[in-house]
């Protein structure tokens, strides 16, 4: 083993031998025996040497055997024995040289006793200090500049798994297979230069597990400045590293979600808002809502005080910001003047709610209006307002679709009125016919009463009154028709049937899903656009599709198929077929099915097919039933209609 470099009483060389194995007894006897021999030789033999000096050996043996008091006792005994031996063998001052030898011996015994006592006390202090190193939780070891272990504390035993006697004299970094992430040479250089180094090391414990330690090295030099030893203190940070890595991983996952979410996410700082809301006096009897209404400048300031800490890519897309461009710093930049939900969110915050959601319109960088659905998550405790998360969903498309649907519905409603008119013409004509006939009859009667001699003016007056009443009624009927036709005549466009079918399918999609109906679409490639009223033709398609879906409601045991086929019909027409695998149509019903008010449904009107036929015929086409549709999935029914490919409208 190399020279001990730290405290002499290292755990390898305990200052005091362990309890139970103390050699004090034997050594004490040896010391006493030796003292006795020296005394006998000194007192009773004619030897003229400084025999008493040998008592120093007794003191040294006593130093090994006894504590402080034992040593003092032994040394005092030796001094007394020296004096006694002198007086037994010499008379006082009879020989100067004998006296001198006795005095030298006494001095030697006293000095060696003092030195031994001092050494024992220093050793005790060092032992106590070494004990402190034992008590620390961090592994500590001392090694020579060439890495040989000279001290190894209990915590090092615990962490690395080797006992101190197993590592004694071994190269510690070879044993621990230390990996130096910063480079071994650089670390050793730094240690020599600065006398200390600290950093992370990866080491291998006895079981083979790898541990990461935070290592602190201190270099001890001798009086000449030569490196003597290195004190290495290592703190096991494996768990901390693992926790840190897990945290970093979770951060990374969160970041990925944040960056790639199709929902806009913003991190906002609401601290100032929170402080102001908390500071608004509540005991004045005025509600916060009223206060904010009365102080628009406060609301404006609060909007400005909400800063945007972070925003994801989807938000940048939403506001039309380039990837490189900086997003606005304050919430105020996104909100239009008098935006109402901000104040609502303040009230929700004041009520202590932790979530607020709403629908609003924000301003893009170019000033455009972007409708959004949003949610704000407020922290449940006072701190944390520097990180208020806001989620926003772009609902532009949804809004547009909603508006388109509403427009379509109102158009359909209007068309329904107009086409129903066709079916009602007969009854209206009948109604107008009746007052007209009454006018004619009463007019003729009035003439007859006038031609009488003398004319019966009373009868004439009564007949003319009835004429006026009938005329008024006819006028009322006509004005009813006018109201009915209030909207301008339907427009005629070039229509892509494929597109039209798509739109119609969209409108009955829910019904299809509800009835578990599968749609088969088969549009021939060589179908050209037709000329007609998009909404009316769509109504035909929808009527036929809804009828087909309803006809399959009771079908069990075979697929419910709704087939829409579009193909040229001859050279002049396009034929659209709407077929189903439903219950089919009874032969006797086929004749009457297009008549108004024919229905087999409890809640049916029986007007659908009649209206469809009027529309198709108004477009110059034909609508008819083709027995079974030409697939053999079930009996079912097939309705066909044609539309001329030419622009001309039929009668
Ligand atoms: P409604 O649907 O109000 O009864 P329609 O004029 O649309 O009025 O239909 C008239 C009748 O024709 C229906 O009651 C039904 O009996 C029959 N019908 C229509 N389409 C089909 C079909 N695809 N399969 C079987 N029967 C049908």
Blueprint (SSEs and pairs):
Elements: H1 24-44, H2 55-65, H3 68-89, H4 96-135, E1 140-143, E2 149-152, H5 154-160, H6 164-167, H7 172-175, H8 184-194, E3 196-204, E4 210-221, E5 227-236, H9 238-260, E6 264-269, H10 271-279, H11 288-294, H12 296-305, E7 307-311, H13 313-319, H14 340-350, E8 355-363, E9 369-377, E10 388-394, H15 396-451, H16 457-484, E11 493-495, H17 497-514, E12 518-523, E13 530-532, H18 534-551, E14 561-569, E15 573-580, H19 587-590, H20 608-618, E16 623-625, E17 638-644
Parallel strand pairs: 12-14
Antiparallel strand pairs: 1-2, 1-5, 3-4, 4-5, 6-7, 6-10, 8-9, 9-10, 11-13, 14-15, 15-17, 16-17
Based on secondary structure, the structural category is alpha+beta
Q: Rough shape? A: rod-shaped
Poorly predicted regions are: 1-22, 629-633, 647-651
CATH topology of the largest domain: Heat Shock Protein 90
Q: Can you list the ligands bound to this structure?
A: adenosine-5'-diphosphate
Strand order, sheet with most strands: 2-1-5-4-3
Corresponding CATH architecture of the largest domain: 2-Layer Sandwich
Overall mean pLDDT: 84
How many domains make up the 3D coordinates? 5
- Kindly provide the radius of gyration, computed on alpha-carbon positions and rounded to a whole number of angstroms: 56 Å
Q: Helical stretch count?
A: 20
CATH class of the largest domain: Alpha Beta
In total, how many beta strands?
A: 17
Distance between the termini: 121 Å
Percent of residues in helices: 40-55%
Strand residues, percent = 15-25%
CATH homology group of the largest domain = Histidine kinase-like ATPase, C-terminal domain
Q: How would a crystallographer describe the biggest sheet? A: 5 strands, antiparallel
């Amino acid at each position: 083993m190399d020279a001990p470099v730290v405290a002499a009483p290292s755990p390898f060389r305990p200052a005091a031998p362990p309890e139970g194995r103390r050699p004090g007894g034997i050594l004490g006897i040896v010391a006493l025996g030796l003292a006795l021999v020296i005394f006998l030789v000194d007192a009773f033999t004619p030897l003229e040497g400084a025999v008493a000096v040998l008592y120093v050996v007794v003191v040294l043996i006593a130093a090994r055997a006894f504590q402080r008091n034992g040593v003092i006792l032994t040394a005092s005994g030796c001094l007394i024995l020296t004096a006694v031996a002198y007086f037994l063998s010499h008379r006082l001052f009879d020989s100067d040289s004998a006296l001198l030898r006795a005095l030298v011996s006494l001095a030697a015994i006293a000095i060696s006793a003092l030195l031994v006592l001092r050494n024992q006390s220093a050793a005790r202090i060092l032992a106590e200090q070494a004990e402190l190193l034992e008590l620390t939780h961090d592994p500590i070891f001392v090694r020579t500049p060439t890495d040989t272990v000279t001290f190894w504390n209990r915590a090092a035993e615990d962490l690395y798994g080797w006992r101190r006697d197993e590592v004694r004299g071994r190269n510690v970094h070879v044993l621990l297979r230390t990996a130096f992430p910063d480079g071994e040479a650089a670390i050793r250089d730094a240690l020599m230069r600065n006398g200390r180094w600290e950093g992370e090391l990866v080491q291998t414990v006895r079981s083979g597990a790898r541990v990461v330690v935070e290592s602190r090295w201190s270099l001890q030099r001798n009086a000449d400045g030569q490196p003597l030893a290195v004190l290495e203190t290592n703190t096991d940070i494996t768990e901390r590293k693992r926790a840190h890595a897990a945290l970093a991983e979770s951060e990374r996952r969160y970041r990925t979600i944040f960056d790639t979410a199709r929902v806009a996410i913003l991190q906002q700082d609401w601290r100032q808002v929170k402080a102001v809301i908390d500071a608004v006096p509540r005991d004045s009897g005025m509600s916060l809502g009223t206060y904010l209404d009365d102080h628009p400048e406060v609301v404006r300031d609060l909007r400005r005080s909400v800063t945007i800490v972070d925003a994801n890519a989807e938000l940048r897309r939403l506001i039309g910001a380039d990837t490189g461009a900086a997003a606005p710093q304050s919430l105020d930049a996104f909100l239009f003047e008098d935006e109402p939900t901000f104040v609502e969110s303040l009230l929700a915050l004041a009520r202590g709610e932790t979530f607020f959601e709403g629908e609003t319109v924000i301003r893009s960088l170019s000033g455009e209006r972007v409708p959004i659905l949003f949610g704000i998550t407020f922290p449940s405790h006072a701190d944390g307002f520097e990180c208020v998360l806001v989620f926003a969903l772009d609902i532009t498309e949804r809004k547009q679709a909603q508006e388109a649907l509403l427009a379509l519905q109102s158009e359909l409603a209007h068309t329904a009125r107009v086409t129903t008119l066709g079916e009602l013409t007969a009854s209206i004509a009948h109604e107008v016919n009746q007052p007209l006939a009454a006018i004619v009859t009463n007019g003729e009667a009035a003439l007859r009463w006038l031609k009488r001699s003398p004319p019966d003016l009373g009868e004439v007056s009564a007949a003319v009154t009835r004429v006026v009443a009938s005329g008024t009624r006819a006028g009322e009927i006509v004005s009813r028709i006018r109201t009915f036709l209030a909207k301008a005549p339907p427009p005629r466009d070039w229509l892509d049937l494929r597109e039209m079918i798509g739109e119609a399918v969209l409108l009955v999609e829910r019904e299809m899903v509800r009835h578990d109906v599968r749609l088969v679409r088969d549009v021939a490639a060589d179908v050209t656009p037709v000329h007609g009223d998009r909404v009316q033709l769509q109504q035909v398609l929808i009527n036929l599709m809804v009828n087909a879906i309803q006809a399959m409601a009771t079908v069990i045991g075979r697929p419910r198929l709704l087939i829409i086929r579009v193909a040229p019909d001859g050279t002049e027409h396009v034929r659209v077929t709407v077929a189903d695998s439903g219950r089919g149509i009874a032969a006797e019903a086929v004749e009457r099915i297009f008549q108004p008010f024919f229905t087999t449904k409890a809640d049916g009107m029986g007007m659908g097919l009649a209206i469809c036929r009027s529309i198709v015929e108004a477009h110059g086409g034909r609508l008819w039933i083709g027995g079974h549709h030409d697939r053999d999935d079930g009996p079912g029914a097939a309705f066909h209609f044609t539309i001329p490919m030419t622009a001309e409208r039929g009668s």
